[in-house]
Amino acid sequence: MKKPILSLLSVLSLVSLSLSSSLISGPLHRSPFESLIANGSITSLDDIAKFHLSDLNTVENINYQVPNTAILLRFALHPGSPIDRAALGRTILTAQRSLRQYIQDNGDAYLDDADDPYEVDDRRTGKCMIGMKSTKKYMTGDERLRYGRVLDTFQGLFDVLYLARRCYVGIFQIEDGGEVVGTGKVLVGNVNFVASLA
């Protein structure tokens, strides 16, 4: 009697593995806006005006001052391109945990070259990827992202995207004291998949 149960479990695990693989690596049907972000054609808010796409009329623009910080985030989100809310939450929380640990161990500093762009994804499902980079990576001074600024930015992403239930593909600009210090993107997919599109 145990043998049929094991066979059934084996079949179910193969079906489950097959389904989860197709969800992660299957073809993604991206909106034109999402495709332009993924392939690097749109990397800043100024780039959006260069493209005349019908779905750009539905882009939601939001400015958000992250509480108790000098960080102002400027978003361009596309409600027609949703992101799985659980995957978005896991991605943000994973990044926050990692950044807090880094800052606790090493103190706040400019992003290391290996971390600029800073990218994180939901490895469990491959349904969410968030990346951000310094505006002027090789400059010294306030034009670059610091680990603390990235952590503050993830708090803003949590507030605007997760808590306010705006789980959409989009781009954002990071300002600190009026200075643009970075840009970022939120996409469906994982780091390796998105990197292969660039």
In short:
The chain has 5 helices and 6 strands; from the N terminus they run H-H-E-E-H-E-E-H-E-E-H. The protein has a 6-stranded antiparallel beta sheet with strand order 1-2-5-6-4-3. Helix 3 runs antiparallel to helix 4.
Helix and strand topology:
Layout: H1 2-25, H2 32-38, E1 60-65, E2 71-82, H3 85-106, E3 118-121, E4 129-134, H4 147-163, E5 168-176, E6 179-187, H5 191-197
Antiparallel strand pairs: 1-2, 2-5, 3-4, 4-6, 5-6
Written account of the structure:
This protein starts with a helix and ends with a helix. It is globular, with a radius of gyration of 19 Å. The chain is built from five helices and six strands. With 198 residues, the protein is an alpha+beta fold. Helices cover 39% and strands 23% of the residues. Helix 3 packs antiparallel against helix 4. A six-stranded antiparallel beta sheet has the order 1-2-5-6-4-3.
Characteristic terms for this protein:
198 residues, alpha+beta, 6-stranded antiparallel beta sheet, disordered N terminus, disordered C terminus
